[in-house]
Amino acid sequence: MGKTHNSKSASVDGSSSAGVRPFGWRDKIGYMCGDFGTDFMFVFAGTWFMIFYTKVMGIPGTIVGTLFLLARVLDAVMDVTVGVVVDRSKDHPGGKFRVTMMRFTAPLVILSFLMYQTFAINSAMWVKIVYMSVTYVVWCFFYSCVNIPFGSLASTISAEADDRTSLSTMRSMGGTIGGLILGIVAPIVIYQKVDGHQVIRGGDGTHIFAIVAAVVSIAAFIGYLICYFNVTERVHPDPDQNAKEGEKRSPVHMIANAFSSRSMLGIVAAALCLLVAQLFSNQLMTYVYTDVFGSAALASISGLLGTAVMFLVVPFVKPLTRRFGRKSICSFASALGAISMLLLFVIQTRSGIVFLVGAVFMYFALMGFNLVIWAMITDVIDDIEVTRDTREEATCFSCYSFARKIGQAVAGELAGLSLDWVGYQSGATAVQSAATKTALYNVATLVPGMFFLLTFVCLVIIYPLSRDRVLYNVEVLRVKRKGITGEEARLLVKYEGITPTGTAPEGSTIEWPDFHELERARELSARTGVAIRDPQAEASTDNDQ
């Protein structure tokens, strides 16, 4: 079972912890800056990597898309491997996840810079492909080594549900701010208008991507440093919490345990579909704005509006999740994304402003999902602990990251194939035909719309963690952290009248277990101080009245 040093929670022995800074804004800002660093590199690669290698280096889109597919599949396997290794490693006084994250940050940001070099631009095609592939695959490896411990941090910073919602929101804000800066500044810096057409600044052999990549890498490193020095890990697992009679669980068992959970399967399926919708859209939207509508400024405005949407949504996240639950919020958001993109496909607008309006509704969908998704991962980690009595944060997060990487692979491959299918012409100064522009518009709207729809289906049908079940899990773990077993905690919570389908109102009839369980619940209540609703005492009170 996990020990918590949160000021709001009791430690395992029931005493309040001392000497640990309470959860607060330092943690929120630090975690936000960590995701700023992560997404600054991730969004730059997701949006501009393919553009750099197709337009500048002259590599066909199919080859770049195939690299995305193969690298992401390999990366997904690396994520799960890193997760298991981190969970099986020893804790550190400064926090296991923070320390592991910083060990790999420097090589990650260096690789992020090296991916966008043009010294091999006049070399043979195979040389360019080899350089592109090696740097990208190695970058993906170090990205896993940083991102898995960083993502696992959320469940150790605080055990409180509201704190985790705040962390999820702040993390998404950090990524969105990074995306905003890239979305507004990068198109203006990288593109310029020549003879009425948008072309890459500097033309063939340009160094503009290397300059932008250097700025991105330095900013990302600073973000990770801020995270490291401001975030505190308060929930530390007992060394033998998942062992039985001194037996250590095997990596295969750890992975199988995570993937056999319905809550994990639901979030994995939904995340995979959402990532395809989001990243496919990210990769092709710049092409649509610059080639179909002939305006790099629209791409910048689109990024600005995306951030404006985030700030509009953020104040409502916590009250809405308290009222409806995270599953309901994400289901509604996914449906909105499907409607907005499929409607753009149907109307076939040739107005950049109308297209931009449709994109804004898609941003509402993405923000509604992304602002709470990280808290949903901690919900899944909690659910596995409640149902399986095991807690392996890094393994669970890596399984979710596995789905994200598969989604990225599918999105990259689809984007590359789509560019070739529509007849897109490579080259920094290439101009596309009318037929290519129409086909590009169609795939950029239809494919994301269908995957938003699939996300909605996965959440509604597979993912089981409703608002009531999440609250039930939180209460079970709150009681468990008073120094009792998972089975005992579930028994106490049952006698509190709290179930996975909701809390029974006072005075209602509750189906109670047998007398021996009732006696056990009374004993646990006396030991832990958790008040229970004793049906015999209630019956006696009713008779006296």
From TrEMBL:
Pfam families: MFS_2 (PF13347). The chain crosses the membrane at residues 106-127, 133-154, 175-194, 206-231, 252-280, 292-317, 329-347, 353-377, 439-463. Keywords: Membrane, Transmembrane, Transmembrane helix. It comes from the Bacteria. One of its GO terms (molecular function) is symporter activity. One of its GO terms (cellular component) is plasma membrane. Gene3D superfamilies: MFS general substrate transporter like domains. InterPro entries: MFS_2 (IPR039672), MFS_trans_sf (IPR036259), Na/Gal_symport (IPR001927). One of its GO terms (biological process) is sodium ion transport. NCBIfam families: gph. This is Sugar (Glycoside-Pentoside-Hexuronide) transporter. It comes from Bifidobacterium saguini DSM 23967.
